Please model this.
Amino acid sequence: MKSSANSGAIIKRRFGLVIDLDRCNGCGACATACAVENNVPPAFPEVNERTGLTWMRVYRAENGRTFPDSRTVYFPISCQHCGHDTPCVSVCPQNAVDINPQTGVVSQIPERCLGCRYCMAACPYHARYFNWFDPTWPAGMEKTLNPDVSVRMRGVVEKCNLCHSRWQVAKAKAAAAGKQDLDPADYTTACAEACPAKAIVLGDLDDRNSEASRAAKSPNAFRLLAKLGTDPKIYYRSNREWVRRLGDADVAQIESEASRG
Amino acid sequence: MTNVTRRNLLKLAGGAAIGFMASPMPWRLTDELAIWTQNWSWIPVPPKGEVTTRMTACSLCPSGCAVQARCIGGLPVSLRAPAGSAALCSLGLTGHHLPYHPARLLAPVRVTERADALHTNPVRLGEVVTETAAAIAAAKAGLGTVAVLDMRPGRSISWAWRSLLSGLPGGAVIAGPGREGASLATLERMLAIESGSLGLDFEHARTIVSFGAPLADGWGSPRTLQRLLGGSRGNVRLIHVDPLRSPTAEIADRWLPARPGTEAVLALGLAHVLIAENLVDRAAAAKAVDFERYSLLVSRVTAEKAAAVTGIAADAIIATAREIARAMPAVVLAGEDAGGGRFGRAAETAILGLNLILGNAGKGGGFLARPDLPAPFDSASLAPVQDLDQLPDRSVALLLIDASAGDAAFPWRVVERKLIAKGGLVVALSPFFAGTARHANLIVPAPTFLEAMFELPAGFDAPAATLGISAPLIAAREGGADPASFVRAVAAASRIDLPGAWARSEDLIKARVARIHRVGRGSVMSIADGAEKPLAAVATPDALLEALMGGAKWEDAPSPSVQSMKTMLLGDAAGELERISTCATAPKQSPQYPLTLLPRAPRDATASAVVSPVITKLYRESVLRRSPETAVLNPATARELRLRAGRKASLETAAGAIGVTIATSGSVMPGAVEIAVSPGAIALGDMHTAVKMEILEICAIDESGGWRQSAARLVEA
Model:
């Protein structure tokens, strides 16, 4: 669904991801592609899973049963791009977090961020990351950085923005072609593009014709911690009931399961 | 006139302070300060320049995936799969980082060991050539043999190595141990194929029976995985045999968790059911010269007996055999693991023998004959290509390692025991001071991915011969050496005449492309637009080369059927299989080593000596992939052995010990210890952390040179 605001110049969309957990094999290509696309630096030697920067992080969770009845699911978790009562937006003292009215994407503005990390404490999905170190790459590797994304400094929070730079490029392409709106085929996220199993789909959740919208409405679709009422725009799908039940589990629980494994 | 009093001054100051705080100024200052602190001179600035798109192919593993590179100012800043092509793995997505990897070598080095640490000292290329030639002279004088360990056999450079070795005592090219598709050599011997090789027709298979092939972890062509995971899976069924609840087990229709080391018994048990229920292909079975002996042997391994040994229920074994026979064509694989290597000779023979009785050889959806690619030049004699176990122990005086196009993970001991008692001379061609090259005495830096033209012959599982070329996108670093030039220099210093008029690797590749063009068979598939045209329509060899450099792939005409008149179901493992067929119980664990150590790895962890430092996202910054220092066992096993999760422990085998952290998971078979063979600190770009002993170095080596499982114990620190 497209709706115009004011004079009709702004086209509002509600972009989101639909991730098919029954297809995900935990290869990690989404996490790698995300880091390359968004100039997320490699880890310092002292970094661990608590202090790392992973805009897209794949967790491994088990069904709690033992061999040979044990089953594993891989859960790619990024910022869930909440739509209502977005916890990180409401707690930021700097207005460094906002929701883009054109895309529905929760944006992080590192230049405004003071590094207080209230947003990290507020996020129920543990999807925000703090730059504990200056971003550094091995000598020469800075030549491989994506010119469309600026590098963030130590002391600020960062997170998934659904590849905002790609959206900008798609919008510019549409404008150059004299179109008011971008072509959905021109905009996809790095994680969706890299997934070898095509388990991740990006699309306008309000567009009834988009694959993502149809998938999000399927009976096996669910959202993480939907009970909180934050209206996330990241949907998950699975035909396995125990996997769908994980949607109501605290992400910390999934994290601790993964750490034990 | 108003008196300026102390009180007035204080009021003014207080008012000013309150006014300042109420104004936007402090917030603006804070903002500016925040922005200022985010723009230090040492913060990297992304490059600027003209944006272009170039096509190439990934040379980091044998799959040779098509790559679309986004370049800024001519340098690649991101790699992706072109539309319609198989997606890239984590290694491929970050391949443009590798030329800048901290372990990259920029000059030849001599490796010395001081205080348990390896050090490198620069040497001139001429010195390396002279020392290599001296070792060849010594070998000629009878002090040992010369061998080349080729991590990616089948390339044109392999012919150059084989020419160099052809006149030398015992000269042989050794294909990298444990490499993917190595088990096909066993099947080729069972089929007595004299020329060409076998390919796999996954596309038309209705059943894939995978004994340990980690299909979901990057085994074989990515297209197979896409077919299994994607919406087009259709009616293909996957039966997976693996003691681990691996990602492949997760996507399998049927998972058979056979006890480690009992796969041969399971294969014989399946053969028993197939023969007993008359489900075999009679015509194919009749070709086997040893069918009677084979039938007698498998008649001893009933489903019940196989169940007792493998831990798989007899009903499941019978149902699986019927399921395979019902959904033909089926392909049965003895899959190599990127960390665990191959099954033993007996297990491979028993597993692959199922293909022969099912009639999968030479049938669509099974194994197809695949003619070899044309050689780059004619040569009167070439040294043979062998498996490592065909080489006598303590025989090699000079070992040349060609890791220029990739690497593999294996215990160095399997190679080391082939060297003469004094150790011999080991010279490696590798872009990095990492991986196998760390065991060399001298290292010559070869170009890495995107720095030079690399040849991409078909992967082992391709149904027909193919050739792609990985075109260079950036200039090679100074100080490196072209592998073919090195071969020429060594030959010249050793006064060995090499056939062909080539000087560099590019010349060899161009010569092979010209020969393919001369044969005129097959077609050329463009990656950019997906168009396919017959090779005959490509006017000149240069036009073919240009197309291949632009990301196109040449594919041979459809393969003829396997011309095999006589087959051997027991291959060269008859004795071992006789012994196995008489065992009635599962192999007993010794009380000293009550656990079975299972090292495993996804392909992208070991296909190259190094990975991009960004891959820390998978290993260090999350727990998606386990570190090599985490030993995972079943909670019940941990309780039984009084081991606690999170505790430090020593993982010990008869070959050594390493320090690990204990973790528990219900997905691990009771009695097993799963451990990941994953990139170490150096491979991830951390050159300052001390190198620890690698897990593979404590694995037991079996009779056929495999290290898939070892008896082990865990002792809490």
